[in-house]
Amino acid sequence: MTVLRKLGVNVAGVVILLAVLEVVGRFRLAGPIWPPLSDVVAYSGSDQGRLILGRAVAATVGEALSGLLIGTVAGLVAATFGLLVPWLRAGMSQVAIVLSTVPLIALGPILITTVGSERTPAVIAALGAGFMVFVAMSSAFSRPADNTQDLFRVLGASRLKTLARLTAPASVPAFFDGLALAAPAALLGAVVGEWFGAARGIGVLLVSSMQNYKVEQLWAAALGTSILSLVMYGALAGVRQAAVRRFT
């Protein structure tokens, strides 16, 4: 009964939010730049809307997934090196913090001149995803399960064997925690990266819609990005629950 009540509250919250969006747009309470939600949905379902949004989403998802893969591998490798070579840990953490705090508006032009405008979205996506995975895994590696690490040390296990037999399995839930946060970060990074001159994608569509005052198209792209981000997070959060049951 508690589960049904919680589900009912969540559904009611979503319905109220959608109703507010529709009312604000229908009665122009926020001006002409806030269209009714029904108009946005109608545009998204039209032939033109499906074609334009479909191409943009496909391009952005491809860049986000590329960045997510690269960032995940980089973050995992960096955290592993920090565990195996402790004197590197502090320096790598500082580098990760610096990279995560650099404003994207300043990083974009540098990436365009170094890797090109086509690769910039994937690189920015990788930076965002890599930081999330690095933080999650570094935190997990520093908190092994129970006191079993002392047992491994007493038995003479090397750091590499301890990592393979103890630390890595115990860190699987934390890995998926980081991955669930990295996926939306990669999507956001890809969209922002597309603003700096990419040929296609949701970021390009957002800029084009603003410049040409296509309000329904602008909102459709923005809402589509939000929904896609929630779907990616929800899917990985579900995988994380399965990992918790398996490895804890």
UniProtKB/TrEMBL annotation:
Main location: membrane
Topology versus the membrane: Multi-pass membrane protein
GO biological process, one term: transmembrane transport
Keyword Repressor among UniProt keywords: no
Keyword entries, A-Z: Cell membrane, Membrane, Transmembrane, Transmembrane helix, Transport
Gene Ontology CC terms: plasma membrane
Cell location: Cell membrane
Stored InterPro entries: MetI-like (IPR000515), MetI-like_sf (IPR035906)
Membrane-traversing stretches: 7-27, 64-88, 95-116, 122-141, 174-198, 218-239
Domain ABC transmembrane type-1 residue range list: 53-240
Family of this protein: Belongs to the binding-protein-dependent transport system permease family.
Protein known as: NitT/TauT family transport system permease protein
